[in-house]
């Protein structure tokens, strides 16, 4: 696949001619607002028939000849893709590029909030081939532990089954004010309320046609760490053949007293759950300073730590379909889809920068005297994250959330062997 970073003075006509594709195909796959306006630094996905270059970590016993057989390529192609590589001096842990017709294979899970988009069911049809699961954020629970529905989930469940995507019931500890640590603490601390939550979740999942349950309890009070483990054990035991998917905040070390990450016992959760999704999003968080949403260096640290406790065949990482538009020197911000962020850069005439450490794009614009910095994702940053999944052979990725437009991401996944269960 080809990625083109727009240079000053370039236009779509010249870019399309260079790659032998139509202007309209570039516009469509990148969601550009017009055929006439692009800006320097813009990362464009160029639709072509070329396969993805694999990213591989050398293991004991590997030789380029064996890797060429495994990936159905040639030694010379591998050497060409890795300038300076000495075929006779490979070492364990070395990362190399492998041009290969063998597609990377992993699972994908998209979250959706019912009602977040009026056109979602139509859009769902287009991206369904690129999804293994869809987790429907339409459930919370009472202070006595009884789960209940808060959104119109039925059309999504029905559509997902038609499209061969497994629907998961997403349970969250939310109230009208957002995530509630008090609600999680009260229910998890009580054996009776935990039993209520387990029973009501399993009943709802079976009655409403779900293939599993995705648990997203956030800001759990640290004293309820073992209570959370007990809840997950009991839930898994009661679920039968349903899939248990558990979401956890990202961390690079275990700090049991931390109010955000302390309640997540990665090792135990990894033993209980079928899938564990580490939320590698919001490094740059709402209300904080302008920072990348999901910098690659941070995700790599989180993944390496997670793999010491969670089996790689169970591990998913979170990819954002959004960016943050922040007013410099204030706590003001707004979230916007990666497509809206890209097109905001175009409409304001900004120059898109690319942070080489974060592997993330960003730009600056002014609204009157108000300085804004926008961090978002583009085809370049998504490729780097998928290379990390390939490198560590993780189970896959999750996306928050599917109503947010990200055409470059889905175009990339057209070249992946997405797991279908």
From TrEMBL:
Keywords: Glycosidase, Hydrolase. Residues 2-46, 54-98 form the LysM domain. One of its GO terms (biological process) is carbohydrate metabolic process. CDD domains: LysM. Pfam families: Glyco_hydro_18, LysM. The keyword NAD does not apply. One of its GO terms (molecular function) is hydrolase activity, acting on glycosyl bonds. One of its GO terms (cellular component) is endomembrane system. Residues 106-421 form the GH18 domain. It comes from the Bacteria. The keyword Hydrolase applies. This is LysM-repeat proteins and domains. It comes from Mesobacillus selenatarsenatis (strain DSM 18680 / JCM 14380 / FERM P-15431 / SF-1).
């Amino acid at each position: 696949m080809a990625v083109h970073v727009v240079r000053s003075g370039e236009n779509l006509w010249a870019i399309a001619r260079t790659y032998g594709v139509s202007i309209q195909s570039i516009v469509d796959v990148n969601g550009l607002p017009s055929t006439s306006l692009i800006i320097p630094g813009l990362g464009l996905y160029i639709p072509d028939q070329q396969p993805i270059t694999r990213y591989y970590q050398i293991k004991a016993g590997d030789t380029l000849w064996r890797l060429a057989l495994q990936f159905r390529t040639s030694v010379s192609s591998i050497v060409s893709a890795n300038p300076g590589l000495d075929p006779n001096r490979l070492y364990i842990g070395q990362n190399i590029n492998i041009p290969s017709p063998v597609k990377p294979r992993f699972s994908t899970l998209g979250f959706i909030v019912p009602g977040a988009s009026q056109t979602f069911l139509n859009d769902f049809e287009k991206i369904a081939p690129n999804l293994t699961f869809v987790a429907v954020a339409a459930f919370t629970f009472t202070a006595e532990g009884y789960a209940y529905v808060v959104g119109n989930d039925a059309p999504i469940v029905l559509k997902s089954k038609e499209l061969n995507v497994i629907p998961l019931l997403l349970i969250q500890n939310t109230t009208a004010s957002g995530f509630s640590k008090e609600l999680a603490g009260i229910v998890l601390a009580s054996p009776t309320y935990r039993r209520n939550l387990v029973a009501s979740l399993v009943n709802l999942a079976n009655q409403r046609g779900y293939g599993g349950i995705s648990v997203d309890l956030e800001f759990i009070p640290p004293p309820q760490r073992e209570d959370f483990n007990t809840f997950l054990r009991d839930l898994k035991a009661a679920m039968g053949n349903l899939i248990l998917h558990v979401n956890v905040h990202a961390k690079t070390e275990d700090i049991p007293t931390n109010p955000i990450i302390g309640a997540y016992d990665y090792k135990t959760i990894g033993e209980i759950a079928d899938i564990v999704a580490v939320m590698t999003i919001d490094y740059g968080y709402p209300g904080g300073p302008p920072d990348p949403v999901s910098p690659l260096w941070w995700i790599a640290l989180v993944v390496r730590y997670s793999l010491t406790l969670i089996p790689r065949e169970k591990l998913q990482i979170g990819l954002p379909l959004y960016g943050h538009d922040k007013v410099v020197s204030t706590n003001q911000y707004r979230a916007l889809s990666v497509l809206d962020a890209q097109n905001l850069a175009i409409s304001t005439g900004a120059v898109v920068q690319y942070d080489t450490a974060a592997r993330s794009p960003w730009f600056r614009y002014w609204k009157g005297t108000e300085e804004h910095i926008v961090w978002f994702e583009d085809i370049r940053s998504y490729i780097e994250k998928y290379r990390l999944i390939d490198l560590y052979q993780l189970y896959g990725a999750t996306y928050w959330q599917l109503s947010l437009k990200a055409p470059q991401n889905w175009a990339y996944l057209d070249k992946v062997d997405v797991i279908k269960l």
